[in-house]
Amino acid sequence: MNTTERLEKQEIGHAKRGLLFGVVSGASWGLSGVIMSIAFGMAPFTDGVSLLLAPIVGAAMHDGFAGLWVFFYNLFNGKWREYGRTIRTKPGMLVCLAACFGGPIGMSGYMLGITLAGPSYALAITAIYPAIGAVLSVIILKEKIGIRTWIGILLSITGVMIVSWVPPAAGMYPYFYAGIGLACLAAIGWGTEGVISGFGMDMVDPEVAVGIREAASFSVYLVAVLPIMFGVVGYQMIAAAFTTTSVWIIIVAALLGGGSYICWYKAINMTGASRAMALNITYALWSVFFGWLLIGTVITPNLIIGGLVITCGAILVGANPKELINLRSK
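The structure assignment produced for this chain is given below.
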């Protein structure tokens, strides 16, 4: 085997490991959402004075613990010093701005969707965020997108309609359609986050950017969202959570959530953005499996078909299908 062949073999092996990271990123995000739904069924989240309180407090705690986990990861890798340097730069500030859309808007809508519509349905809906990001890039950045992307956008919208056509068993989620709407809000938040962070991520170490993103999101929750919306009640629920086993459930969910982000960025680096996104977006399907396995979610035909349509649409938005199977080209 000559030098060129050895290098090509090494590159393909590197790309294959990247595919594994992509699969793990999708599976861990799907599992994280299901585990968060378990926490919401425990005290003190069942004692909320409003439908909004528990999911938003849970979202704040998730991002806070995820930020802590990612910081420990960066501490281990010797990147913790980059936090202070990065946050003083324009790209770092853009990451913080993006976090406001991805956290208080995206994550809150996501957690509310999980609470009101169930994790499998909410995660399937949020998977349309690449399509929303593509539309926003046309509106905000004046980008031109091709026919493949438009087909992907239409498929994503069709998938949303299929998923939300028939709600789960009567009485299980009385606010199902409100949950679907809030999951759509999450997709808008994450799509906007992607458009904004695209300016900053190219100039910032991705793993540091994830840590700053989670920390910025938690800070906004702590100093603005919770006191404005709930006063001291939000802080009281956080304090109460630390006296129950639910906090450990959230810590595990946050570990999976932070790990999902890191695996996704590793996959982007090792196997290319298109394939990484295509594998990450399968969290819509992983959530169905884990929902069935852990909390007994009934797998309805519209959930499976809609989830598959949304996943296919999201893949078409972000990737040329021919390139996904060719590991010789990133």
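Interim note for the steering committee: The chain has one domain: 12-46+54-324. Residues 12-46+54-324 form one domain.
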